[in-house]
Amino acid sequence: MNSSNHQLATKTVHAGKPDQSFEGAVTLPIFQTANFLYAGEENYHAVRYTRLNNNPNQIAVSKKLAALENAEAAVVTNSGMTAITSALLTILSHGDHILFQDSLYGGTFNFVCEDLPQYGIEFDFIDGNQPESWSEKIRENTRAIYVEAMTNPLLKIVDLKSVVRFARKHGLVSLIDNTFPSPINFRPAEWGFDLSLHSGTKYLNGHSDIIAGAVIGKKTHVENVIKKMNHLGGSLDPHACFLLDRGIKTLALRMEKHNQNAAVIAEYLNNHPAITHVNYPGLADHPNHTLAKELFDGFSGMMSFELRGGVASAEQFIDRLSIITHAASLGGVETLITRPATTSHLGLSPEERIKTGITDRLIRLSVGIEAERDLLAEFEQALQGL
After folding, report:
1. Which residues contact 192 (CB under 8 A, 6 or more apart)?
2. Which among 11, 49, 63, 105 is annotated as catalytic?
3. Strand locations in 240-299 (E)
């Protein structure tokens, strides 16, 4: 289906569908098969084999993701970390150098600091909001720059326009983790980014029931990522592809509600006497609010905050919750809450966490699609007396 002229809500439902139905099925069936009949392929990567990312379910959901971000191509992966690591190991080789934003998701940070040096790849961290300082870190062997659209868990917003300009000026590949905004709120290809990375486990699927990832962007880069991933074995199985495709069909509806609920909750928490501060780019007092309004169509359902009483109060608050689920992930239809120091950023040392602004008492909140009134009542009772 050619969906280039359709709105996002229509693309989520119809983009990627094959032109021909299979036995009249309205929904693309699950091609639960490892092998396909040999058809004379002469290129290894063209051989019909599910590990080689050419199963009809893989192809369909990948086309849908490319359409959603108005990008040239996409490929789904078996996790968000596979998307990140495969992209980095495709772009970078032994002896190369890359610039990273100085506030990264814990899994990415661990891969950068622990694994990249083993491949002979060098890196430096940059302050995302001081583009005038980035050139100081450029080397002759610098190949790429990597940022997050909204950082996990502090919701910092980088000067993304400057990232693209800087990358073009210095001939770098620009990569961005777009998991938090989702394609509904931000489409990196429209702003000039080369590759957009996602944990499909989160908003794309939205139901906390599969692990998946995606690499979206320029065709040449995506095709190279596919070849690298074919060797590394990061393909997404057909049934998970089917579920991811089904989840994406409601993405526009879900993100609208995530955006709405989070805006209300953030305002409520920001004015509550038990809360010291709230990190949410939709708030007028967020340091990057003006930039966020320019970049994003919505501020997503993610935020973080701290209570005045420290770790003990944070734990007591979380223990009092009933409909809000204490779990490590995010982006589901249910509201999820965690302390990053105990989950997503547990792999960082206490010193590394403090250096990036992640305290032990910091709470990360992924606002779901429940009734706004019920969520507010939940927070009201849980915060009482703290």
Report:
1. 164, 168, 174
2. 105
3. 275-279
pTM as predicted:
0.96
Please tell me whether the peptide bond between 281 and the residue prior to it is cis, using omega within 30 degrees of 0.
no
Is position 105 annotated as part of the catalytic site? Answer: yes
Q: Per residue in 266-325, pLDDT tens? A: 999 999 999 999 999 999 999 999 999 999 999 999 999 999 999 999 999 999 999 999
φ, ψ for residue 254, nearest 5 deg: -65, -45
| Contact (CB, 8 A) for 379 and 268 | yes
The answer to whether the beta carbons of residues 223 and 78 sit under 8 Å apart is no
Q: Which one from 63, 143, 156, 202 is the annotated catalytic residue?
A: 202
Q: Is the pLDDT of residue 1 over 60?
A: no
- The fold of 252-383 is Aspartate Aminotransferase, domain 1 (3.90.1150)
CATH 3.40.640.10 spans which residues of the chain?
Answer: 8-248
When computed from its CA atoms, the radius of gyration of the chain, rounded to whole angstroms, is 21
With beta carbons less than 8 A apart as the criterion, state whether 74 and 99 touch: no
Distance separating alpha carbons of residues 185 and 81, to the nearest angstrom: 22
Q: Where in the chain is the domain with CATH 3.90.1150.10?
A: 252-383
Q: In a 3-state reduction of DSSP, which class is residue 79?
A: coil
Q: Has 51 been annotated as catalytic?
A: yes
DSSP symbol at 350? H
Per the residue annotation, which of 17, 48, 51, 227 is the catalytic one? 51
364 classed as catalytic: no
Rounded Cα distance, 279 and 212, in Å: 27
**What does the alpha-carbon distance between residue 96 and residue 193 come to, in Å, rounded to a whole number?**
20
Residue 340 amino acid letter: P
User: According to CATH, what is the number of the domain 8-248?
Assistant: 3.40.640.10
Please answer whether residues 60 and 68 qualify as being in contact, where contact means their C-beta atoms are separated by less than 8 angstroms: no
- Out of 96, 102, 159, 177, the active site residue is 177
